[in-house]
């Protein structure tokens, strides 16, 4: 049997040649539109059974679909302008389900100042499929994933691995039962409802040399950023920020480390740049934590423990193919 393309090969070999200057060679998760130097566009498709559970609350499904796109805008330093929705409904949809979906979508559209601009609704014999195209304004500077330089620090926002653990708990009730109720609820919500870091957009525009959101796993997404920038990276395990809930889960099952770092759905921001530009914000928050540095080379990121030993994983990130 002929080997199928990987996701990266599919993009690089088949679709990148179709992209003009605005598409940036499809090396990023968003693009500058030719119509305006500051207009940014991004699209994500979510499929029931792949990106969410079919029996998740419809309002939460809608919010996740919008928020993963807003996360892409945030990582480019862009503020939301609006979005387009394509909705493929399965045969068993109901008015009540669709009303709850629209209510959740409307709540987030209002909260994030990102109105619905148009779209399309169709019927499908397959699972529920949602595609959102979000538009944003970069306000003077689009932050690519191609600008990382040797000597840059590597930074992440928030905590890593919570959503991947939340998914694991949905699939492993026995593990979920071992955690405290507060930790279990925190991890499950982190999977169900991402938190797009739009509040960090201006900070990224001001000083990030490169950035992207962490959607497919920290180590794998860092590999994508480094490859796009034609550099390598070195990360210290002890410096990766973990929540108390994640640490509790690791204490019960140390083999979950790969899930945390390579599992995806964090939707935190991975950024490179000068350490002075990622310090404490004017409000006293420490929005980013340094986890490593950009180094010369083009090999995959090196993750080292406190003794300097290199940690290797079977797969660096989630892949659809």
What is this structure's SSE topology?
Blueprint: H1 7-15, E1 31-32, E2 39-47, H2 58-75, E3 79-89, H3 95-111, E4 116-123, E5 129-137, E6 153-157, H4 162-171, H5 173-178, H6 181-192, H7 201-207, E7 208-214, H8 218-229, E8 232-236, H9 244-252, H10 257-262, E9 268-273, E10 288-295, E11 302-304, E12 310-311
Parallel strand pairs: 3-4, 8-11
Antiparallel strand pairs: 1-2, 2-5, 3-5, 6-9, 6-10, 7-9, 8-10, 11-12
Can you offer a commentary on this structure?
This is Thiamine-monophosphate kinase. One of its GO terms (biological process) is thiamine biosynthetic process. Pathway: Cofactor biosynthesis; thiamine diphosphate biosynthesis; thiamine diphosphate from thiamine phosphate: step 1/1. Catalyzes the ATP-dependent phosphorylation of thiamine-monophosphate (TMP) to form thiamine-pyrophosphate (TPP), the active form of vitamin B1. InterPro entries: PurM-like_C_dom (IPR010918), PurM-like_C_sf (IPR036676), PurM-like_N (IPR016188), PurM-like_N_sf (IPR036921), ThiL-like (IPR006283). With 321 residues, the chain is α+β, with helices and mostly antiparallel strands. It has two domains: 131 residues, PurM-like, N-terminal domain (60s Ribosomal Protein L30, Chain: A), CATH 3.30.1330.10; 159 residues, PurM-like C-terminal domain (Phosphoribosyl-aminoimidazole Synthetase, Chain A, domain 2), CATH 3.90.650.10. The chain is 33% helix and 23% strand. The chain has ten helices and twelve strands. The strands form two sheets. It has a seven-stranded mixed β-sheet. Strands 1-2-5-3-4 form a five-stranded mixed β-sheet, with helices on one face. The protein is globular, with a radius of gyration of 19 Å.
């Amino acid at each position: 049997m002929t080997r199928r393309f990987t996701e990266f090969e599919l993009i690089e070999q088949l679709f990148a040649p179709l992209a003009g200057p605005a598409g940036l060679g499809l090396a990023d998760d968003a693009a500058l539109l030719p119509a305006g130097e500051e207009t940014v566009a991004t699209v994500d498709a979510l499929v029931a059974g792949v990106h969410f559970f079919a029996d998740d609350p419809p309002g939460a499904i809608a919010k996740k679909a919008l928020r993963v796109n807003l996360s892409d805008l945030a990582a480019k330093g862009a503020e939301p302008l609006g979005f387009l929705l394509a909705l493929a409904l399965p045969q068993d949809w109901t008015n009540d389900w669709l009303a709850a979906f629209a209510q959740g979508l409307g709540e987030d559209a209002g909260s994030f100042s990102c109105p619905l601009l148009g779209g399309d609704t169709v019927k499908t014999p397959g699972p529920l499929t949602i595609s959102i195209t979000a538009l944003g304004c970069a306000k003077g500077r689009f932050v690519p994933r191609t600008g990382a330089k040797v000597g840059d620090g590597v930074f992440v926002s928030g905590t890593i691995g919570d959503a991947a653990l939340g998914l694991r708990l949905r699939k492993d009730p026995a593990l979920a039962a071992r955690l405290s109720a507060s930790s279990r609820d925190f991890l499950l919500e982190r999977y169900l409802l991402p938190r797009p870091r739009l509040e960090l957009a201006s900070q990224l525009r001001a000083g990030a040399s490169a950035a992207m959101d962490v959607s497919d796993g920290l180590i794998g997404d860092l590999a994508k950023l480094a490859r796009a920038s034609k550099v390598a990276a070195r990360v210290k395990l002890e410096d990766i920020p973990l929540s108390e809930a994640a640490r509790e889960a690791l204490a019960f099952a140390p083999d979950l480390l790969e899930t945390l770092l390579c599992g995806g759905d964090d939707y935190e921001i991975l950024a490179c740049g000068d350490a002075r530009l990622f310090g404490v914000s004017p409000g006293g928050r420490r929005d980013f934590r340094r986890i490593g540095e950009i180094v010369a080379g083009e090999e995959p990121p090196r993750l080292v423990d406190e003794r300097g030993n290199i940690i290797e994983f079977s797969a660096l990130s989630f892949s659809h193919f």
